[in-house]
Amino acid sequence: MDLWIIGNKLGLLVYIILSVSILPKTGTPWDILAYLIYLCVNVTIPIFRNDARIQQLLSACSAVLVVYFAYRLDTSFVLLLPVNLYELVLLWEGRRRIALAISLIPLVMIPREELPVYILSTFLSFLLYTGLRLQMERLKRVDEERETLRLEMQNLSHLLNKNQEYIRQSEYTIKLEERNRLSQQIHDEVGHAMAGALIQMEASRTLLAANPDKSAELLGNAISISKEGLERIRLTLKDMKPRSEELGIHRLRLFADELSAKHALKATVTHEGNLDVITPMQWRIIHENATEAVTNSLKYGHASAIEIEVRVLNRMIRSSVSDNGIGARKIVKGLGIVGMEERAASVGGTVIVDGAHGFRVTTLLPNDKSE
Amino acid sequence: MNVLEIRNLTKKFGDFIAVDNMNLSVREGEIFGFLGANGAGKSTTINMISSLLRITKGEISLLGKNIVKENKFAKLNIGIVPQDLAIYEEMSAYENVSFFAGLYGLRGNLLKERAAEALEFVGLGDKHKDLPKNFSGGMKRRLNIACAIAHRPKLIIMDEPTVGIDPQSRNYILNSVRKLNEMGSSIIYTSHYMEEVEELCTRIAIVDHGKIIAEGTKEQLKSIITDTKEIWIGVKNEERLDIDALQRISGVISVQPEEQTVKIVSRGEVGNLNWIIQQLIKDGVEIGSVEEQAPNLETVFLTLTGRKLRD
Questions:
Q1: Contact B304 A362 (CB under 8 A)
Q2: Which residues of B touch A352 (CB under 8 A)?
Q3: PANTHER family given for it (chain B) (predicted)?
Q4: What percentage of residues in chain A have a pLDDT greater than 70?
Q5: Which class is domain B2-223?
Q6: What are phi and psi of B295, to 5 degrees?
Q7: Residue B226's closest chain A neighbor by CA?
Q8: How many CB atoms sit inside 10 A of residue A95's CB?
């Protein structure tokens, strides 16, 4: 930018020097002094790049000098005026057209023969500055965009990490819960049975010689208690499915109950298919999307009933939230919908929003049975 | 090699998003079906492929070349059969075809030859001098097709070519789609007639609200919903059912006798109806009715979107 301005000034200055010194009239030492002063002032401007005020001052100085020189020495100096004015405008972040207008004022004062050259110089400078300005603005915009994208990426990767952490955590939690449940059950059911059987057997040993009949009866009790215990062990092991699906659907039910209680509407949850295949991550997405969709329904839908449905299909999991409200003929994607889409996309799914009959948000997630 | 490759395609009309970040590829030699309700974004996508609409975001490439940058190449290699008839009623059938073939870049003898060929292909060879205003709806449709194929494009796009025509013309068109495919053109076929798509297409994409929600062969699409089929058999004397024997038939997953009927759930790909019926006859069961319920594309669409194709 600075280089462009210097180049512009230099070009004009050389033109003036040429027209003043080499053409018919010869330059006086005053002319040369004027060139040097002008050069000095204008070379100083870029040096103070860090202080806009000094730059403005110098630029204004230069403009005054130019006018003074034009008045005292040679009218050609006025050609340098527009550049200075643009520079000033640029430093003040003002409007280009104002500068153009100001730089056209001297038109009335300068001699006729200089007019075309002055106008040419003014408009050339105007063009140059406009171009430069636009370019700069574009650069700035691109820069800002890059920055926001970077931030967004950072956020996303942060989110990803969090989600991965969440998966790890919930797997761990499930294992822990399962272990607790197992040990509790073994203690409660199997442990008691075994202890009972042991007591009966010990009593039977004591009575073995004295009362064989009683002893046999006690032994029989012990056997039946042991059998029962064995059966309980079998049942406990058979019943060892993880309960994560219950957590998931329970949470949705709870959510629906809360909705019905707090607002004037009826919320229901239905499900179909084997909920076991839904991973904790998927449950989380289903739940978050349902919350978001319900918020939308409450805000805009004027609905009196909301239905949340989770269906496990062969290769997909479909969860939908539909209301009986006014719907929307034209759907404008807000942050909420984009958020739902992003969540679904993170596990390879999609979201369909339909406003034809009430509002319905359907989240489709892939069902990878291999996991 | 992919004939058509669509990447992150988006089309907005103001705030309304007609096509939403669509990704799709059509392989060489495919009849690719585009299934969706009215207003799902099928025609918008097709209009973008045929450069009738500007792309808001994303990229479409035909045979590896970007259709926006190499527009001429794209035009020469795509033939479009638009949804609304695009023929001149006051020009003869032959003139219509040669006019469109000329637009696609054919000249001279080649143009005459190909135009006559195309008319022959759609069965209008003997009507080449007649004016389309005297044609039936089906004949107009066929002429519309002839106009799109005279220049032998690599990719033919047919946007609802069977809307509002008689069954005979419809069969004719379906057969010619197959023939065109055999002759080496890849075809994109859109319709909301599920049966047509199911019968014709090698691969299908289900589109809703501008998004592709599922894609694959019809078997793959059906298996999204379920791998099983249900066979309902109405029986008069259910006490004679030998459930264990039925359960041993290959493919059978479960047998549930109910009042006057027995419901058999079986793996979808196994054809075991014969065996089941044989077993029932052997046991002396009197069969009243047999009904097999396997998912079709309509059910797939309904289950995934919660709507019917023709809502």
A1: yes
A2: 208-209, 211, 213, 305
A3: LINEARMYCIN RESISTANCE ATP-BINDING PROTEIN LNRL (PTHR43582:SF2)
A4: 88
A5: alpha beta
A6: -70, 145
A7: A314
A8: 10
CB pair distance less than 8 Å for B224 and A315:
yes
Separation CA B6–CA B179 (nearest Å): 26
Q: Which distant-in-sequence residues (6+ apart) come within 8 Å of A327 by Cβ?
A: A301, A355, A356, A357, A358, A359
Q: Are A236 and A274 in contact (CB under 8 A)?
A: no
Chain B closest-CA separation from residue A288 CA (Å)? 20
Q: Is CATH 3.30.70.980 the right assignment for the domain spanning B227-294?
A: yes
Locate the chain B residue with the closest alpha carbon to A352. B209
Main-chain phi, psi angles of B26, to 5 degrees: -110, 125
Query: Phi, psi at residue A272, to the nearest 5°?
Result: -150, 140
ipTM metric:
0.71
Which amino acid, residue B84?
D
A36: part of which helix (H) or strand (E)? Answer: helix A29-47
DSSP track, B73-93: HHHHHEEEE-SS----TTS-H
Mean pLDDT split into 10-residue runs, chain B, 311 residues? 89 86 90 87 89 89 89 87 87 91 87 90 87 87 90 90 84 90 91 84 90 89 84 83 83 84 82 85 86 83 79 52
Size (chain A), residues: 371
